[in-house]
Each structure stands twice: as C-alpha cells, then as structure tokens.
Write a structure and sequence with these properties.
12 strands, 5-stranded antiparallel beta sheet, binds thymidine-5'-diphosphate, 1 helix, mainly beta, 135 residues
Length: 135
C-alpha cells in the first residue's frame, strides 16, 4: 500500500523579473477530482494532527508554508516524509494511517481531498485500522 504513496512535483513558474514563484495544479496532476480543500495552521510544534486513516478518501498534502513531518503506516511498514516545499505534494492513497508532527512555526498544510467530509470514512483508532487492513 505504501508503494502507492508518492510525491507529486507541482509545476512552478518562477518569475523572470524576480517577482517570486507561482505553482499551479491543473486537472490531471492528481488521480482524482478535488471535492474539498482544507488547511491546517497555527499548529503548536508539539501537537500531532491526523491520527487516523480513511477507508476510501485520497488526499494530497502540501506544505504551503513552513514544514512538518508526515508519518505514514499501512499496518506493515511505517515511513516519515518531511514536507517543506510549496511545489511538492504528498499523495496519500486510501487505507493509510497518517500522523502529522513537528510543525514549524507558521506552517500551513493544505489538503486537497477526493471526497466531501464524511465521518463514516474515518478510522480513528489504530487497532480498528489494523483490523480493517486484515479484512
Ligand atoms: P480531523 O480530520 O480529525 O483533523 P486532523 O486529522 O487534521 O487532526 O478534524 C478535526 C475536526 O474538524 C473534527 O471535529 C472534524 C472537523 N472537520 C470538519 O468538520 N470538516 C472537515 O472537512 C475536516 C477535515 C474536519
């Protein structure tokens, strides 16, 4: 399952006159159509966000500002990915446990999501996640 996790290179347009950068996600860059956008900010550095998996939902996380670490777990393997660039997206497929830790000051995590909010799609207990993966 973690082999489906990937970093998406988001096209970046650097202004030739030194006016900064612009990144754009156009329709085919993600393997789903975006149904919802949300973002995390003002996260204390010692806080953990996430701490759940989704049955169906897929999402792409982007560190719009600052940095944070995404811990991903498929029930067999656990990896950590540092996100610290607004032109890199982390694609998380369904059925992956995630925790977001070590937010830097001012970090903003943008989340581009494949589905509308549905609490029934969440698995919020790690033990339930392991049971779900064994089905
Ligand atoms: P949650 O997904 O648990 O946050 P995180 O995993 O990032 O720590 O959501 C936190 C709260 O916000 C929870 O009460 C559900 C609510 N929420 C919505 O109402 N709509 C949304 O789109 C999201 C993502 C969360």
């Amino acid at each position: 399952m973690l082999e489906k996790v990937r970093i998406i290179e988001i096209p970046k347009i650097t202004d030739p006159d030194g006016r900064g950068s612009l990144s754009v996600l156009e329709k085919n860059i993600l393997p789903y159509s975006i149904k919802r956008v949300y973002y995390l900010y003002d996260v204390p550095s010692n806080s953990t966000r996430g701490g759940h998996a989704h049955k169906e939902l897929q999402q792409c996380l982007i560190a719009l500002s600052g940095s944070f670490i995404v811990v991903l777990d498929d029930g067999k393997e656990r990896i950590e990915i540092l996100l610290n660039r607004p032109d890199k997206g982390l694609l998380i497929p369904s059925g992956v446990w995630r925790e977001l830790i070590e937010f830097s000051a001012g970090a903003v995590c943008l989340s581009l999501v494949s589905a509308e909010y549905d609490e029934d799609d969440y698995i919020r207990e790690y033990e339930d996640f392991i049971t779900f993966k064994k089905k």
